């Protein structure tokens, strides 16, 4: 069991990871960070429009799978989400390509 890659990752609480925005509903952004479930975070009030599908973001992960045993239930229930908080935007779609074009134009 200790040979498992998952176990070798250790404790998730507070781990900072990079993810991609894969879906957006109003102020909620769904972030794929490479595990079983996406993290759902609120886009910030300022510059929230920059958080578009395909953008790279930095998140602080607390729990890769939210589950809870509710009162009167004999089974755990999963919310199909990871618990995380959004730290910052680190890249937007097409940003690298725009930089290359600007660099080539400046060399002329």
Automatic annotation (TrEMBL):
Record's protein name: Uncharacterized protein
Pfam families assigned to the protein according to its UniProt record, in alphabetical order: MRP-S35 (PF10246)
Matches recorded under InterPro entries: Ribosomal_bS1m
PANTHER family: MITOCHONDRIAL 28S RIBOSOMAL PROTEIN S28 (PTHR13447), SMALL RIBOSOMAL SUBUNIT PROTEIN BS1M (PTHR13447:SF2)
Any GO CC annotation of this UniProt entry: mitochondrial small ribosomal subunit
Origin superkingdom: Eukaryota
